[in-house]
């Protein structure tokens, strides 16, 4: 999402701005009319320690409390180099809200650009732990199963020549332990200056293709805990890839299930 567009729609009642940095940074300053959301509110910690997507009922409560329904355009922002805002975006997409974008800059750059910020949170009497707030907006979860993968999906598709598994972690992490056959594409490779996602669709696609990640394949992204993989998902969508999934459990879930590592 372009910052110029957002700056001209800050008071648009059909736009919901989500500050994905969490409540504490939000209190020290945020984009005008934004509402805070900690990424932990869209993550369920499984017994094995993996960070899985929240269930439908919780998602409906969380997103309804943000004022999100089918009529709203949602813009999520965070702070580079933290990719967790992308996890919020992916969660909304997984639950069927396609009109959601990641802002193309972090809060610090927005502030330095002289765009509208505030410390006033009175317009959003937001209680991060109270999911029983009565709100006018009603978010309805409509799961898009095609956007998510789990360990069983990986095992079933592991030897399929039409499937590419992408590791969005660092080279060091990849070479230490990885899902066998996965291709390294560090999440930061899809970023330009100041953590902005590369907007040139063809440049992004060419970079993926040079690594063997092509748009005719199904692509499954993973990382350590699903944050960087969610950003890689958005990069692939930006490049025009249609068939992309996030393995939200990622390497934690894979390893804890005693699946093979390389």
Feature tags:
262 residues, alpha/beta, Oxidized Rhodanese, domain 1, 2 domains, five-stranded parallel sheet, four-stranded parallel sheet, 10 helices, 17% strand
Tell me what you see in this structure.
This protein is an alpha/beta fold and 262 residues long. Helices cover 31% and strands 17% of the residues. The strands form four sheets. It has a five-stranded parallel beta sheet. It has a four-stranded parallel beta sheet with strand order 3-1-6-7, covered by helices on one side. A two-stranded antiparallel ribbon has the order 2-8.
Overall spatial form: globular
Strand percentage lies at 15-25%
Reading the helices and strands in chain order gives HEHEEEEHEHEHEEHEHEHEHEH
Name of the level-1 CATH class of the largest domain: Alpha Beta
**How are the strands ordered across the major sheet?**
9-13-12-10-11
Largest sheet: 5 strands, parallel
SS class: alpha/beta
> In the CATH scheme, what's the topology name of the largest domain?
Oxidized Rhodanese, domain 1
Overall residue-averaged pLDDT value: 93
CATH architecture designation of the largest domain: 3-Layer(aba) Sandwich
Structural domains: how many: 2
Oligomeric form of this entry?
Answer: single chain
Rounded to an integer in angstroms, the radius of gyration calculated over CA atoms is 18 Å
The poorly predicted ranges are 125-134
Provide the CATH superfamily of the largest domain. Rhodanese-like domain
What helical percentage do the residues reach?
Answer: 25-40%
Distance between the termini: 37 Å
Q: What's the tally of helices?
A: 10
Tell me the total number of β-strands: 13
